[in-house]
């Protein structure tokens, strides 16, 4: 039992840390967010709400400059002010922003926030166990190897979530009559929009490579065509 104590403490730490992080995120969003008010985007969210048999989909604007979409742990959907600014200058269309909303709805519907809490706790326990073993076998570099292996695991799980959210969004956008073209066109723009060209190696990246995401959507569309 004593040997398991560090691992159990690591799991507990992961759960507590995640809850604290979710609380801090909620406070930040409450303080710096407003309800989205745009006629074209509202019309598109109404289409998606009808496709999901929901009365409405409420979207908030997070008042920060980085370009991003966010599904908060409490289920709220956010677009950043930076994204809205690009929309207002014509660099991003309303349909492309609707694809971001659909993607974030996917994260919520598929329970990714809750699953990440469990994943984080498990990863923390793995990190402690590996650090203890490798630190003893490979003094000096064992802990570094353990941290790298856990980072690779976390990145792999995150990439899986992104593919799943993309698939959900593709299905929703198709059912809503918006289609997947805006989803694919936005993905092709993201690197230029965000300026994130120096991406980490794929095994450490939290998001799949853009061509892989577009190819996955196109493969999904092909399966739908064959099955129809």
Structure description:
The chain is of the alpha+beta class. The protein has one domain (5-227). It contains 8 helices and 4 strands. It has helices at 5-31, 39-51, 81-88, 94-109, 112-137, 142-175, 181-194, 210-227; strands at residues 33-35, 59-62, 69-71, 77-80. Strands 1-2-4-3 form a 4-stranded mixed sheet. The longest helix has 34 residues, at 142-175. The relative contact order is 0.12.
Summarize the structure.
The chain is α+β, with helices and mostly antiparallel strands.
Q: Give the helix proportion (percent range).
A: 55-70%
Terminal CA distance: 56 Å
Q: What is the total number of structural domains?
A: 1
Number of strand elements = 4
Main beta-sheet strand count, sense and barrel state: 4 strands, mixed
Dominant shape: globular
Low-pLDDT stretches: 198-204
Strand order of the largest sheet: 1-2-4-3
Order of helices and strands: HEHEEEHHHHHH
**Integer average pLDDT:** 80
Strand content: 5-15%
Rg (CA only): 20 Å
Find the structural class using helix and strand composition. alpha+beta
Instruction: Please give the count of helices.
Output: 8
**Quaternary status:** single chain
Looking at this protein, list some descriptive labels.
single chain, 228 residues, alpha+beta, 4 strands
SSE topology:
Blueprint: H1 5-31, E1 33-35, H2 39-51, E2 59-62, E3 69-71, E4 77-80, H3 81-88, H4 94-109, H5 112-137, H6 142-175, H7 181-194, H8 210-227
Parallel strand pairs: 2-4
Antiparallel strand pairs: 1-2, 3-4
Helix pairs in contact: 1-5, 2-4, 4-6, 4-7, 5-6, 6-8, 7-8
